[in-house]
Write a structure and sequence with these properties.
Number of strands: 7
Oligomer: single chain
Radius of gyration: 28 Å
Distance between the termini: 28 Å
Strand order of the largest sheet: 3-2-1-4-5
Structural class: alpha+beta
């Protein structure tokens, strides 16, 4: 069972990378159709998740801006941000749905997840190779005649020369 534990790191890494890439692609699609206008943070909405010492707060700015066609919009951003009340910011909004908006500086979102995923993937693969019993992965080096092991009646193994004609390379 323990030999499969590194696969959890590999799975976590792959999922984190895939979700981060999906988020980045979604943001790029949003940014391509979005319009950019000046705005201001008129409020900050805070939500809490977890309990006790695991309690985490998420702060989403409430953005107030005027669309290019002159409508004044106040909406909660679709992403968390550290912007405080009264801060001026550029706003990206969807012209089809102006209530779908976010601060324009959120362009780097998602790269942290990719980095964490790559690190977890690397750790998982390193542990997997360490626990898989692979000791020598250098191709083409001949360490001399192949050695076999014979099982003794007491359950131990004794090194012994391999029988002639035994092909251990395939």
């Amino acid at each position: 069972m323990f030999e499969y534990f590194p696969l959890l790191f590999v799975a976590f890494g792959i999922v984190a990378i895939m979700m981060s890439v999906k988020g980045l692609v979604g943001f790029q699609r949003f940014a391509q159709r979005a319009l950019r206008v000046p705005g201001v943070v008129s409020d900050v909405r805070t939500t809490f998740a977890g309990r006790g010492e695991g309690l985490k707060a998420t702060h989403r700015p409430v953005l107030t801006f005027t669309t290019v066609d002159g409508r004044e919009i106040t909406t909660e951003a679709s992403t968390a941000s550290d912007l405080g009340v009264g801060n001026a910011t550029e706003v990206l909004y969807d012209p089809q749905d102006p209530t779908s908006a976010r601060p324009a500086h959120d362009t780097a979102a998602g790269y942290g997840g990719i980095v964490a995923g790559v690190i977890a993937l690397g750790i998982g693969l390193a542990f997997f190779s360490a626990f898989s019993g692979v000791t020598d992965v250098t191709p083409g080096i001949d360490d001399g005649p192949a050695q076999c092991e014979l099982r003794q009646p007491d359950g131990t193994f004794q090194p012994a020369p391999c029988p002639p004609g035994l092909d251990l390379d395939h």
